[in-house]
Structures are given as structure tokens and as C-alpha cells.
Amino acid sequence: MNKIMYLEFERCIGCRSCQAACRECGDHDAKERNYVEYVDFMESRQTYPMLCMQCKDPACARVCPANAIQITEEGVVLSAMEEKCIGCRNCTFGCPFGIPKFDFEENKMYKCDMCYDRSKHDIAPMCASVCPSDAIRFIDYDEMMQLRRKRTQMNLIEGKKPQEGNKWEYVPEFFGVYSD
Amino acid sequence: MSDFVAKKGVKNLQHKDEKLITTHCCYCGMQCGMHIRVHKRTGEVRGVEPRYDWPVTMGKMCPKGVTAYQTIEHEDRIKKPLIKKNGKFVEASWEEALDLIEKNYKGLQSKYGKDALSVFGGVSMTNEKCYLVGKYARVALGTRYIDYNGRFCMSSAAGGFIRTFGVDRGSTLPWTELEHSDCFFMAGSNTAECHPTSIQWFWKAKDKGAKMIVVDPRETPTARVADVHLDLKPGTDSALANGMMHILVKEGYVDEAYVQERCNNYEQLKEQVAHFTPEYTSEKTGISIEKILKAAHIFGRSKRSVVMFARGVEQQSKGVDNVALYSSMSLLKGHIGKFASGVATFTGQGNGQGGREHGQKSDLLPGYRKLTDPEAVKYISSVWGIDPEEMPKPGVSAYEMFDEIQKGNIRAMHVICSNPAVSAPNTEYIWDGFKKLDFLVVSDFFLSETAEYADVVLPATSWAEDEGTTTNIEGRVIRIRKVREPYGDSKTDWQIMSEIAKRMGKEKHFDYKNVSEIFEEFRLATKGGKADYYGVTYDKIDEQDGVFWPCPSEDHPGTPTMFKERFATEDGKANLAIVDWREPGEIPTEDYPHILTTGRVVYHYLSGNQTRRVNFLMEQCPLPYVEMHPELASQYNFQDGDFCKLTTRRSSMTVEVKLTKAIREDTVFIPYHWGKELSVNQLTNPCLDPISRMPEFKVCAVKLQKIAEYEMPSPI
Ligand code: SF4
Ligand code: SF4
């Protein structure tokens, strides 16, 4: 696998198809591992999706006292191993993105694994497959770099220039999930 | 042909014990491609797999599509015919149910005449079935009273297109071209929620610098990504379109050569739009002059624009006018019949396009033929094997059928694939109509609000238990495959209609062994008509990724782009719309000071009979609510989550308040997917468009009242 999960928040239309699709992944027990939130519904309908960043040095794995969270050779951070997880929920607090969730009935942690059964065969994870707006994409590293450059180029074509106070509009507000 | 279609090099996840069956979503007009996962041994439906290589949707689906398979083997499915005895439904055999139908149909017809029976159809089913509904009403039952739920959906678009272009194909261009367009003018369409997978095309174009102008009283997820959001007052589209054309003419944005050569009425149009100055337009629509100018200049400078609209402009008493006016904007630019430009409406129902072309409408015969045209009657009679004299005359529109019930002319109804108890306007009148009927038959696979009124409920199969074709939002005919055997004792709609035909002594006209036989007859029936499907075959659909109608012969590739050389009017020219300003059916008054508008949410489909049974969708949106601007809310001291009683001249209902600045201050919005006390259509105005007979769902006057305590009823 040499692909990247690439998020572009601005495109999100809030349909939560990514959540519905997450439940459909064979290994996901019909429980979604991503989430979609309104930025502020009072102001606008802008939403954004969030999924696991598959961090190089994942906080969830670091804070796990039982060493239950494994990372695959491709760099995918898996759900806690059932036989090791002691149910302390440190990981759910440790993750800055709020990704790991805890199943109180089964007494175990579960999280986004990039639909490992799909992505290990280079098939897009369910969320990236269905996302109607391409807010979530499963693409090559080169394509990602090209997309990032394009963003700046578009602003030039539009004759926009960052000014004090709106610089953030010109910073690509997306980031990749590096799995490799 | 294989049941699984995938192009070379496309990877899908396929589990060892499962097979994939290639089909399309059952819900909206996007008809997203999908594969259904079926267990090889048990035939059980397991889930969904994206169809990455379907060129219109690329594997993308909205949450309704992702969860659609969950309705197939749902525990609420009706497994056996139900007969109402002493106010309660009792399971019965098909024999008993058909006996009862035969007895009542024959009894009522001998007492009150043939037209005592009526059929209320729907377009969330295949072309084969939609075609058969018209034949069933006219040949098996011999009644003039047939109409369908598309009357509440696509009828204004149809009326406007026919008036302007002479033919009604929802999109004049294939959507795969949309990424090359440079400007979208989108009115009354929240496509991000109602046709979510269309959004990828707009983003693709936007990534290359295309501009988007969105006309909507709410800042919907679609309007949010627009370059200009024209936040008009509901019901003022005709002023806006005239105002836009005023600027196009004044600023020299008109393609004079195109208009001279290909359009009628240009001089009158110039006169008509002369008084729609930006000031006047702004006064009528409530949009700022600055925004109107900005939008007009962006649109005016565009080289490849697409004008698009949906129910927001069509579900009005001026629906046909609105469609004709917005289409005229595109004509002035000379953009119809060219690459990556044109006009399109967003088809609401899965087969809203195909289903409206083949004779479910009160005055239409297959192939978009007119029932008032003697030649058409002669031709279709010959296909059906009846005497032209036997062909019933045109009936009345969907809502007007309920007037006929009140008058005692219609005594029985067969509702097929529709739930007017939720989706018609002024629902209390509809409910009363159902109660007045001597006999009501409903075919459905879940017990809908309409079915609850029935004397007999016939269990129909879902979309996954039958094959056939549908016609998507673009006018592309596509193929629906059978995924599993009928659930319980259910039968396909075509089998049900054939069984009843047999009971009515018309079996020789309904002697079908399979769907292909209906398809063959259907092709022939459309031959030579405006919507000509004669050259469409199942194999060709697979080979070509669908076939665009008109396709008059087997060696014809189909017609992705319409009107390249001429329009389908008699003189080959398009008719520009000459329409003056007219108020909607209701405007705010002292007693009813605000405007109520209605629409969809992304999680539900139409009357919600299917989507209200899917867990994921219900978790996201279990109940209707009223969306309100905080400025309006503070006049009544409403806070988020308070209960608001809304009253119109028809009725009242109570829902929770949801505050957002993403809506006009004078307008409130309620989604319409729920029944009974939760149905906003208790409140909507049945003021009909004079041509399309479309009710004005989108505009009515309302008053608000704060309610301290309220218990919301159950959503199912
Ligand atoms: S599927 Fe895509 S557009 Fe829809 S909520 Fe998820 S990220 Fe947003
Ligand atoms: S409801 Fe429409 S957009 Fe959603 S998956 Fe079905 S066809 Fe596609």
C-alpha cells in the first residue's frame, strides 16, 4: 500500500455517508469509527469529517499501558487487540483527534483502521470510496502533492493575495494521512 | 450476461462466500451505481460494494444509498396480502385478496361505470412497471382516472421543457461533461443534500475555476459553496429570472446570432424584461442589487454555462413559468445543444424521468404521446391490441383525483408505489378522501401511511427482487438487476397488475412470462414517439454504460446531447418565455406573517416510508423540525429545542425549533418526510399551477406560536 488518505474539509457537504459506509466495512461490526461535525450550525452548515491520522508515533498506542495497539507494517494503527486491552480507555483520552472509541458492552476499544481488509489490497476504504464530495480521498502521494500545489495556483489565477487577517484562507486546510 | 459488471483493472473487495450483483440505487434520480453483496449459498443480502467504474457516480453514494440494501430483508416487510377486517389487517392468501378485489372492482364498475375505479401510480419503479401501470388502468380497468406521484415532483419541469423546447428530457447534456462547464446557475436545488453524488461534478469544475451561483432562501450545503448565493424570498423566481435576463440584454451578453436563428419571441422578451431593472428585481425578490449584478455578470461572461433547477422553483403555482424563464436564460446565452453547457432539472425520484414518459400521467400515452392525439391513440391501441374506441379519455391530475372522490365520481383507488397520505399537499383532505372511498387497494412493501387506509394491501417486491430499466437524471437508460428472489409471498408489481387484469377478463393483454417481454412491448410502444426507446436493449445498456433516449433504432447510439441542430418544437425553434410578475398563491398577511417552505434532508427519501426504517438514517434525523433564523426566533422568544406550533390556513403542527443564520429571516423551513401529525403537508397549499397542476409545496403563509410542553409523536 502506497496510498494516502487525504482530507479536504471545505468540500464536505455533511451527508455523513462516510459514517454510514464505515459501518459497512466487513471488520467494523457495524460501528462507525469516523465522525462528522458541524463547525457551528448557528453560523453555517459547514461540516468536517475526521478520521484516524494513522500517526507515525500514535498517542493512543503510546499511552496504552498494555501495549494493545499494534501498527501494521504499512503503518496502519489497528484497534486494540482484544486479548491485551484492559479497558482503561487511556487511548480515548490520549488521541488529540478523538478517534478511539470504547465499546462498553464488549469492553474493548475500537478505532479506524483504514478498512485494512480493503486498503491492504489497495482498494479504497469505504469512507473514501463513497464520499460524494471527495472531501475524503484515497490517493497516491504524488497526486496529493499535486493537489496541494494546485490550491496555491488557483489562488494566483483568481488574483487573490493573502493579507493580514485572512492568511489562513490561503493555507491548504487539509492534510494527508500517511500510511507509508 | 454476467450479473457482475466491472471494467478491466477495477478492484472490488469480494469475499469468498459472496457474489456481487451490479445494479443501481433505488432512491433518487442520480441512480448511483452499486454492487449488492449476496451470500452465494443462502442468497441472503449482505451489504453493498461501491461501483467505482459507473461513469456518472464513480462508486460514490449518499447515506441512503449505502444503507439501501437494508430495506430488502427488513423485518417490517409485508410478507402476505393483508385484508382489513373490522378495522384490523388480517393476513390472507393471494386468492382471497384477488377475489375481494375482483368482487369490488366489478361491483363498483357495474353500479357506477368504468370510471369509478382509479389508479395512483409512482415513479420509483422501473420503466417496464411504469409503462404497465398506464396500460393496467386503461386496458385492464378501462378507467380514465390515472395519475401518479410525479405530478408532485417533475410535472412543472416537464411542462416548462415542453413549452420551451418541445420535448421534456431532464438534462440537455450528459453529466460527465459537467466538469468542463465554467458556470452553474442553480435555482431551488439543494443538490448537496438531495442528489449528493452530483456534488463531485461541481467540485471537479470548481477545481478548474468554474463559478457557482445558487438561488435558495436557505444557505444550504449547496449554497454554502457558491460564489454568489442569491437568497431570494420563496416564490419570487420569476422576478429573478426576468431580472437576470434584463441585465443579459442590457449588457450585451446575448448571443444574438443564436437567438435570431434558433429562438422565437426575442423582441417580446426584450420588451417584457425591460421593467425588471435590478432595483425592481431586488424589491420583488429581496436579494440585494449588488448580488444580482454580480451573478448576472458572472453568468453573462460564461462561455459554457449550465442552468439547473429543481423542486424549489417547480413546486410552485408558477412552476412551469419558472422553468421556462430559467431555461430562457440559457437560450439567450446560446448555450443549449453545445458541449458542457445546457439546461437540466434534478430528477427527484429514481425513475422520475422514465416514469413520466410512458403513460402514467392522466393525459399521456407511452413514448410521450398525447392521449388527445388520435394518431397516438390509434398506434398505442394497435400495440395493446384494443379498439381505439375503447381507449379512455384523459382524466385529471393527482390532487384533483381527490376532488373526484369527494364528488363521488371515483369510488375505488389502487395506489401503486406511492404514499400520497404523506406526499400530497393539504394531507387532511387526502386522508378524508381515502376514508370516503368504497374500496382502496395499496401495493407496497412496507405498510405506508396510505396503506393504513387500505381495504387490501398487496405485498410488492422491492427494487432488488426484480429486473428492468430506469432512466436516470440525465435521460440515460440503465439496468436494474435482480438481487434475490421475492421476499415472503410478495409479487412484483407487474405480476400483481397482470393478476388483476386476468380477474377483469383482460388476461390476453397481460400475458407476460418475464420482464423482457414487457420491455419488448414497451420499446415498440415508444417507437416513433418523442421519448423513443425503440433502439435500447439490455445488452446495449451494458456495452455502452447506458443509452440516452431518443434512440430510435438498434444501430442508433442514443442521444447524449439534445438539440444540437434543432429543437423539438414544430418550427424547430425554442420558445423564449414571456412571463410577467405574479404573486405566489399565498403571501404573508398580518394573521399569517411569515413564509413556510419545505424540502428534503439528505437522510430521507420522499415520504420516508423506506428511510424511516433504516437505523443509521433515523439516528441522524429521527424527526422533523423547523429551521429558523435567530432574528425571527427572538421575536417569539424561541430558543434552540423549544417547541413551535405552526399554523396555516389548512392546519397546524408542532415541531422543535432549530436555530441557524443559514436561512432568511422571513422564512421557516420544515422537511417533509414524515406522516400523520408529523407531516408538514398538513400545512402546505394545494394551489395548483395552471398548466402542470403542480401544488405549491414551496410557499405558504404561516404563523408561529411558542408551546411550553409538547410530546413529539412516534416517527414511524
Ligand atoms: S461523506 Fe464526505 S461529504 Fe459526506 S460527511 Fe463524510 S466527508 Fe463530508
Ligand atoms: S439516494 Fe441518490 S445520491 Fe443517494 S445513493 Fe441513491 S441514487 Fe445516489
UniProtKB/TrEMBL annotation, chain A:
| Pfam families tied to this protein | Fer4_11, Fer4_2
What Gene3D superfamilies would the database entry show? 3.30.70.20
| UniProtKB keywords | 4Fe-4S, Electron transport, Iron, Iron-sulfur, Metal-binding, Repeat, Transport
- What top-level branch of life does the organism fall under? Bacteria
Spell out the InterPro entries in the cross-references.
Answer: 4Fe4S_Fe-S-bd, 4Fe4S_Fe_S_CS, ET_IronSulfur_Cluster-Binding
GO molecular function annotation: 4 iron, 4 sulfur cluster binding; metal ion binding
Q: Where in this chain does the record put each 4Fe-4S ferredoxin-type domain?
A: 3-33, 43-74, 76-105
What is the protein named? Answer: Electron transfer flavoprotein
From TrEMBL, chain B:
State the needed cofactors, names only: [2Fe-2S] cluster; Mo-bis(molybdopterin guanine dinucleotide); [4Fe-4S] cluster
* Swiss-Prot/TrEMBL GO biological process terms: formate metabolic process; respiratory electron transport chain
A GO cellular component term found in this entry reads: membrane
- Which keywords, in A-to-Z order, does the entry hold? 4Fe-4S, Iron, Iron-sulfur, Metal-binding
Name the domain of life this protein comes from: Bacteria
Query: Which Pfam families does this UniProt record tie to the protein?
Result: Molybdop_Fe4S4, Molybdopterin, Molydop_binding
- Residue stretches making up the 4Fe-4S Mo/W bis-MGD-type domain: 18-76
- Any one Gene Ontology molecular-function term assigned to this protein's record: metal ion binding
InterPro entries to which the protein is assigned, alphabetical: Asp_de-COase-like_dom_sf (IPR009010), Formate_DH_asu (IPR006478), MoPterin_dinucl-bd_dom (IPR006657), Mopterin_OxRdtase (IPR006656), Mopterin_OxRdtase_4Fe-4S_dom (IPR006963), Mopterin_OxRdtase_prok_CS (IPR006655), Prok_molybdopt-oxidoreductase (IPR050123)
Q: Does the keyword 4Fe-4S apply?
A: yes
Protein name in UniProt: Nitrite reductase
Q: Name its species.
A: Pontibacillus yanchengensis Y32
- Which lineage? Bacteria, Bacillati, Bacillota, Bacilli, Bacillales
